[in-house]
Design goal:
The protein has 374 residues and is mostly helical. The protein has one domain. Helix content is 70%, strand content 0%. Helix 3 packs across helix 4, helix 6 runs parallel beside helix 18 and helix 12 packs across helix 15.
């Protein structure tokens, strides 16, 4: 039987490679939610449900994105300004044909974006390496690593990762204006999107002498900062303080302000060793894994990949509170490519994917019983 046109050629390869991982990941998250329900309803003496379990797809930050899409920034208070506008704007648009159902629109946008991110990552790895197995493994790991539960909930990471991978694909193809446009959207999506200017600068400087497309190259570098600047300019116009999206994120109950990465990391390790809070201590193994994978990125992938991953990690580790560092590491998607690179042995690959899927379920359970902040 002849395949539909969409499933033929390179795009068809990417779609077929990303689809199974996307489906399995949602099954793993659903199982994690079910285990959380059992743990709370059957094992807790008081039977009290944590808020996150009742919120479902809209737990933690997802509720903010839903409410911004529904009521706008002015309708939810200034604290909502720490959430960048791209996801709420998309959700608002998609909700129109859904009779204004913002919640359904948020779930659809995020999960479609997660599938698209897997497709783009698969294509990027295929073009960089020509290795079909490595590309497929990268898509599977992106979907199954424990922090990937936020690619199912109403978070902005699915869009941000897809845009970041798209920027790299455009940069490596020397499609500077495409890179600029995608980077601008990334700058509107998450505060860390602005860091895409660094790998863009690395790629732009290659072949700069004698280049005839310098305007496009410069546009690729400034795209992400312009996107972020547009949002900050709007905040200045509406609220008379452009710094609110950044200062609100640094309050004591969130990021906690700036710290040097070594002090923040040591605090997390000490918490793990001394039996501190479970959530805080669980960050330590991830930090160690990210550090090792960063070495692999610099050793095995183009320099721009390492620059981007390092910049994201440094920013994440520069907070007094390292909560949610796992999903920051997921946004530094070259780390996922590094893990795929070192798990090429079929037995290792199967073991890593099995452990990742099980850990994704466990991570989801911890999040929905309120023991861990995604």
């Amino acid at each position: 039987m002849k395949l539909p046109r969409l499933l033929r050629g390179p795009l068809g390869d990417d779609l077929r490679a990303a689809w199974p991982a996307w489906v399995v990941a949602r099954g793993a998250v659903a199982l994690g939610v079910l285990l959380a329900v059992v743990a709370v309803d059957e094992l807790r003496p008081d039977g009290a449900r944590p808020l996150q379990l009742d919120q479902g797809f809209f737990a933690w930050d997802a509720a903010w994105y839903r409410d911004i899409a529904d009521h706008g920034y002015e309708g939810i208070g200034r604290e909502g300004l720490r959430f960048f506008p791209l996801l709420p704007l998309l959700v608002r648009a998609v909700s129109l044909p859904l009779f204004g159902n913002v919640g359904l629109a948020l779930v659809l946008v995020v999960n479609v974006a997660a599938f698209a991110a897997g497709v783009v990552v698969h294509r990027l790895v295929r073009e960089e390496t020509g290795d079909r197995a490595l590309a497929a493994r990268s898509a599977w790991l992106l979907a199954l690593l424990p922090p990937a539960m936020v690619l199912v909930l109403g978070y902005a990471e699915a869009i941000a990762i897809g845009l970041a991978a798209g920027v790299f694909l455009a940069l490596r193809r020397r499609r500077w204006w495409w890179a600029a446009g995608l980077a601008l959207l990334a700058g509107l999506c998450r505060p860390t999107g602005v860091l895409l200017a660094l790998p863009a600068l690395v790629e732009v400087l290659r072949g700069w002498p004698g280049a005839r497309d310098r305007v496009g190259r410069l546009a690729a570098v400034v795209g992400a900062p312009v996107g972020t600047g547009v949002f900050l300019a709007w905040v200045q116009w509406k609220f008379d303080d452009w710094s609110l999206p950044l200062s609100l994120q640094n309050t004591s109950d969130l990021r906690g302000g700036w710290d040097d990465p070594f002090t923040a990391t040591w605090s997390t390790v000490r918490s793990l060793v001394s039996g501190g809070e479970l959530g805080e201590g669980l960050h330590a193994p991830w930090i160690g894994l990210f550090a090792l994978l960063l070495v692999v990125v610099f050793a095995r992938w183009p320099f721009s990949y390492g620059v981007f991953a390092a910049a994201v990690l440094v920013m994440a580790l520069s907070a007094e509170n390292l909560g949610s560092i796992e999903r920051y590491g997921l946004f530094a998607f070259p780390l996922v490519l590094a893990l795929a690179t070192v798990t090429a042995d079929p037995r290792v690959e199967r073991a890593v994917l099995a452990v990742s899927g099980a850990a994704l379920t466990g991570f989801t359970t911890l999040v929905f019983v309120g023991a861990f902040v995604p």
